[in-house]
Design a protein that fits this description.
Length: about 325
């Protein structure tokens, strides 16, 4: 009820304006530009695989191969590859990517039925791999001339590939997860799904060849970096030596000090010394030895074991 003289206030709600329809005569690209210019939309384009050429352009004398595997598990000593994808491309010393000239994707039936979680993750079923065998002649023909083999987590893919064929063990490898500073390029994570999405694309993930093409597009593009594409950073990293330092016989009560600095524990089961260890760039060797001698061993002549690694050694299967 309202008292005498009191009138109810009428509040007029503002009707939101309907967005004007886009003119139908615009091309798809023009419509995309208009939508993006509003700042209210983020457009993801479906990643289209690069064209496979028969005739490679001159000026790109080097060969890179991106490899991706789908497996029955995480341990190459117990589990098997069920799918491999390879995308071969040319590049030059300036890290410019040239042409894709060869592609292979192959399925292989494992010894045991696929675990349900693997089928859920990859979409690969027992029916799909039944009777299938990876064509090793094609794999060898692609890998043999490769100057660099690239995997998104080479520490996982390289051991599985070496178990598949010994040729992989003789190649230089690069890891697009650990050897590129993705955060400085504006990416929020290192998973391929993050990288491809923030590069403005979407793709069918967890199939080997599709993931290879997706990674190539991220590496060759310049998203988030005004300087050079991510592939340039990866190629430079593959040419630098790395050093592993094993802090053997370090005092037990200083293990947290080592761990906080980035050292990891090796229990000796994989052929490494039983000790805390770290992998660093060669330029950081003197600094790291100074740290160990002054803060861990407290002995100026301490000489912990070192292992020098190149792209031919890194990410190899451990004995």
């Amino acid at each position: 009820m309202f008292s005498d003289g009191e009138r109810p206030r009428v509040i007029k709600l503002q009707t939101p304006q309907k967005p004007r329809p886009l003119p139908t005569h615009l091309s798809e690209e023009e419509m995309l530009r208009i939508l993006e210019a509003t700042g209210r939309y983020r457009i993801l384009r479906k990643l289209e695989p690069r064209k496979i050429v028969d005739l490679r352009r001159p000026g790109f004398p080097l060969t890179g191969v991106i490899v991706d595997t789908e497996t029955t598990g995480l341990d190459p000593r117990q589990h098997e590859i069920i799918e491999i994808g390879l995308v071969a491309f040319t590049f030059n010393d300036a890290s410019d990517v040239g042409d894709v000239f060869d592609v292979y994707g192959g399925l292989q039936q494992p010894m045991n039925p696929l675990p349900p979680e693997i089928t859920q993750l990859t979409g690969i079923t027992d029916e799909m791999v039944a009777g299938k065998v990876i064509d090793m002649a094609v794999v060898r023909a692609i890998i043999e001339p490769a100057d660099l083999v690239i995997a998104h987590n080479a520490g996982f893919d390289r051991p599985f590939c070496e178990a598949l064929n010994e040729l992989f063990a003789r190649k230089a490898w690069a890891c697009s997860v650990s050897e590129i500073d993705w955060s400085s390029r504006g990416y929020e994570g290192t998973k391929l799904g993050y990288l491809i999405g923030q590069s403005g694309y979407f793709h069918d993930g967890h199939r080997a060849v599709d993931d290879c093409f997706a990674l190539l597009e991220v590496l060759a593009g310049g998203h988030g970096c005004a300087e050079r594409p991510a592939f340039a950073e990866l190629y430079r990293a593959s040419q630098r030596s790395r050093i592993r330092i094993f802090a053997e016989n370090s005092p037990f009560d200083l293990k947290d000090h080592l761990k906080a600095r980035g050292y990891r524990w090796a229990d000796g089961s994989d052929g490494r010394p039983k000790s805390w260890w770290i992998e660093i760039g060669e330029e950081s060797l003197d600094e790291e030895l100074h740290f160990l001698r002054t803060e861990i061993y407290r002995w100026p002549d301490a000489d912990p074991p070192l292992q020098r690694l190149t792209a031919f050694d890194r990410f190899k299967a451990r004995k």
